[in-house]
Amino acid sequence: MILRMNQRSLTTTVALLIALGGGLLVMADPPSASELAKRIDQHLSAAQESSRITPTMISSDAEFLRRIYLDLAGRIPTVAETNKFLQSDEEDKRTKLAHQLVHSGAHARHMATFWRRTWIPQADTPEFRGLSEEFEVWLTMQLTSGLHYDEIVRQMLTVGASGDQAEANRVLLSTPESFLSASQRQPENLAANTTRAFLGVNLDCAQCHDHPFSRWTQEQFWETAAFFARPKSSEAVSTSDFEISMPETEKQVQATLFTGDEIPWPTQMYGDSGRTALADWVTQSENPYFARNAVNRVWANFLGTGLVEPLDDLSEENPPVHPEILEELANAFVTSEFDLKLLTEAIVLTEAYQRSSRVSVGESAQVDPTLYARMPVRGLSGEQLYDSIRTAAGLPIERNDLDPTKDRDARERFTTKFFVEDASHAERSILQSLSLMNGEATQEIVQADESPLLRTLADAPFLNDQEKVRTLYMAMLSRDPRPEEAETFARYLAAAPDKGAALGDLMWALLNSAEFNTNH
To answer: What is the full DSSP assignment across 304-345?
Structure first.
């Protein structure tokens, strides 16, 4: 059993024993992000060599810069940020940038949306959309404060569950009940959503009958649901009071962990002790699913394909493509006491993440994505696209959590319209394309009197046409224009009687390009 320290600032000095994949692994203090990245690269290099696959070259600084800003900050970099990075000759500038972004407020806000979508996907539907804002604001605060992954998950599952009513009320004021509300507080919904979101186990397929392709049974599903059932009596509560009836049967089942592990019941029992006990087990270091599920989801978010696919099927029947990588990352995650920043920083420092997405002449575009030999091209989420458009134009990013006094309807309308469920397989619809060409967000930034960038460029006598084109490319695509691009754009600009309108036309063309609309 692992003893948890009360202060997260203390480094774990004892070896941690964790059960992953059925075997016990011993590991001391967690590695640094750079050390962990090197270990992952070694595993992938061996797999690629075994498969006789030659990975693509490492991405250029401009490609890496745009990619890591989109992934970690949720937007493209500004012109100033781009120039600073590209002009730097420091050998470790990528490492420094990754560390800077992972510890930024923008990263916390961006990942709050990612985790909310992972844990409470119902909030993207009209019925539960009201749960999204409050939860993301709360989660942003937790991530910014440095609260670790297991503590966040435990708070979500146990909010208001304390036997001390005063303490329960205090927690309710500080922790939103969005996860519980999205499940409508129904034991069967909470069981399905808890195992899927936090363990990567698709247990709900066994709700009505035994799972057809896995070992999960209908009885195991309802035994898990029993943790969320409230005892009939409000007086003395015991472990046997957490039971539930299986539908269409006369059978009553008691709360039981589907792994067969011993339940960590609290010493003092009360009406919500079931979900408290389940939350304690879910977030244990020894839990064979908790760390692997988080690691797998973060890996898939940044590299397009999970080490286990589907993401909610961590089972013996569905082994990972690279078990050694999943184990390496999960071990480090546990020994760091579930530090998401370390995990994220390590993944974006791997060669796999830094590889180019370009296909060379004569090279096949069809490469097994599970070999991670080439960075996949991913679609932008509605949030990434909207915030990038405003960043490119020099406008402030509109966020409810940044300025709750202003109306954010425009951002919400845009992100709803450009909702992306799977970035790796996202395809732009005709209506979305038309909206990007002629919609409210686009029209606002392609007019010189609305866009700070265009207004500055149009009125800048110290910049010639070539320099204005370069600045526009830096703002939109985070790179210098290629010679033929620079010549074409500069020629168009030189012949235009209205520089502001011409610059708006050029910005419109770049905004609607595949390069701007993808993370590559």
So the answer is: SS-SSSSTTB-BTTB--SSHHHHHHHHHHHHHTTS-HHHHHH
Cα angle 505, 511, 516 (rounded to 5 degrees) comes to 150
Cis? peptide before 310, omega within 30° of 0? yes
Q: Quote the CA–CA distance of 31 and 28 in Å, as a whole number.
A: 9
> 340: Cβ–Cβ under 8 A, 6 or more apart, which residues?
111, 143, 148, 149, 294, 298
Euclidean distance between CA atoms 339 and 8, whole angstroms: 10
At residue 399, the pLDDT reads 53
pLDDT in tens, 144-200: 999 999 999 999 999 987 655 545 555 554 578 999 999 999 999 999 999 999 999
Phi and psi at residue 87, to the nearest 5°: -85, -10
What are the helix (H) ranges across 146-200? 149-158, 165-174, 178-182, 187-194
The closest alpha carbon to 396, from 453, 446, 356, 321, belongs to: 453
Can you read off the two tokens belonging to residue 75? 């937007």
Helix-strand-coil split of the chain, %, nearest 5:
55, 5, 40
* Cross-strand bridge partners of residue 27: 16
DSSP for residue 355: B
Among positive and negative, which fits the CA dihedral 191, 196, 201, 206?
Answer: positive
List, for residues 395-422, the tens digit of each pLDDT value.
887 554 455 444 467 888 888 888 887 7
DSSP for 402-445, please give it.
Answer: T-TTS--HHHHHHHHHT--S-GGG----HHHHHHHHHSHHHHHH
Which secondary structure element, helix H or strand E, spans residue 24, and what is its range?
strand 23-27
Write the pLDDT tens digit of every residue in 83-124: 999 999 999 999 999 999 999 999 999 999 999 999 999 999
- Any idea which residue has 């020099």 for tokens? 394
pTM for the full model? 0.90
Alpha-carbon distance of 286 to 332, in angstroms, equals: 13
Write down the pLDDT at residue 363: 61
For Cα atoms 223, 162, 197, give the angle at the middle one, nearest 5 degrees. 45
Task: Give the CA distances from residue 246 to residues 84, 192, 215, 243, 477, in Å, rounded to whole numbers and listed in that order.
Answer: 62, 15, 18, 10, 56
List the structure tokens of 321. Answer: 């493509």
Dist. CA 327–CA 60, nearest whole Å: 30
Conformational region of residue 248, where left means phi above 0, alpha means psi within -120 to 50, and beta covers everything else: left
| pLDDT attached to residue 288 | 92
Ramachandran assignment for 467, one of left (phi > 0), alpha (psi -120 to 50 degrees), beta (any other): alpha
81 vs 97: CA distance, rounded Å: 10
Tokens found for residue 181:
């509300």
Query: Which amino acid does the sequence have at 71?
Result: D
With b for 16 or more beta-carbon neighbours within 10 A and e for fewer, the 116-129 pattern comes to bbbbbebbeeeebe
